[in-house]
Specification:
Elements lengths: L4 H8 L14 H10 L3 E5 L7 H4 L5 E6 L7 E2 L2 H7 L4 E8 L9 E8 L6 H24 L14 E2 L4 H4 L8 H10 L6 E5 L2 E14 L7 E5 L1 E5 L4 E10 L5 E2 H7 L10
Parallel strand pairs: 1-2, 3-6
Antiparallel strand pairs: 2-4, 4-5, 7-8, 8-11, 9-10, 10-11, 11-12
Amino acid sequence: MQPSPVKQLALMHGLDTITPTSLRGNVQALNWLREKRPDFLVVVAFGMLLPVSWLEVPRMAPVNVHASLLPRWRGAAPIERALLAGDRETGVCIMHMEQGLDTGGIYARRVVPITPTTTGGELWQRLAHEGAELLVETLPRIVSGLKPVPQADQGVSYAAKITAEDRLVDWRKHSAIQCDRKVRCFFPRPGARCTWQGRWLKLLAGKPLEERTDADPGTILALNDGMKLACAGGSVYGLNQVQPEGKKPMDALAFARGARLQAGMSLH
């Protein structure tokens, strides 16, 4: 077990830290927080609902830095769900925490565009920076009297936790655009994947091509500028980089040569 970067930085600056395994019913941890007499309770990517007893502790407000433009993508995986849905923008909200799942009023928000090439790793980094900056700007404004604006009743959507199935590229079900969203969403970690000869193959980079085909989905159409693959609906995806199970990332053509793949063969 290793401390997170946040805890490492806190320890470097001599700040008290605790790492409770749970909060509900944890009287010792709650008393620790109460003894600090905090003005604010700030939560970032915590992954679970805080009990009301915790939300009542801070003098000014309990706030959450949430990585979406609420009320769109409330819940556990807002960054991934925005990418998988093909959203053209997302952002961060500084939100007042209450009992509901990301239902509290909004103090401030900042919009971040999603381009056709944005990856999950890039979006995480951008939103982390924007969220930290917006938090530092917003807390003094709350002290000065800024009130949260209730969320709209329309446009509510929920970002369910990511599952292993979400990472799976099924050439029979997914169009080239949908395949591309999965590849970009899960790059660099944990990686979108398909199977080849019964083993996992991570798909690390590629792009939808402006081509059409009548070939069965999953068929390798050509091996020239990358690996061209038939997808659902007759669309074509150009795969450029992969990572075979147990090996390092490599160029898709290098993988094809080593695996003795040829046009007409199939991935699954």
